[in-house]
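I can't quite decide. Please look over this sequence plus structure tokens:

:::
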Amino acid sequence: MADSVATVWMPVDDMGRAVKFYGEVLGLTVKNEGDDWSELDAGGVTIGLNAREDTHRGGTGGAVLTLNPSGDLFDEVVRLTDAGVEFAGEVSQHPWGKLATFKDTEGNDLQLFEAPPA
């Protein structure tokens, strides 16, 4: 039985570009950076950026990384849009929360999530 998440791996084509996106644009703390593997801290969960092998370049699909913004979801959408991030449509609103969907620089699916008020 699993009791926690150790690391989330995100495949990347360009390590420098990906580290810059996750570190500077999303504001996560870069723990270490290398050519084939880099790590960022996402509030106690490690996000590993894993260089794709040449045979798997440009891949799409796979896991979706969902992030909790530190403030208001709409404010974060504006901040990220100003930083050049393109969102896939409008923020979707559901009884269970709000989602804003976008991609990282490597084509991986990301979302911002905000739970409804308690």
Q: What stands out?
A: The chain has a mean pLDDT of 87. The longest helix spans residues 15-25. Strands lie at 7-12, 29-32, 37-42, 45-51, 64-67, 92-94, 97-103, 109-114.
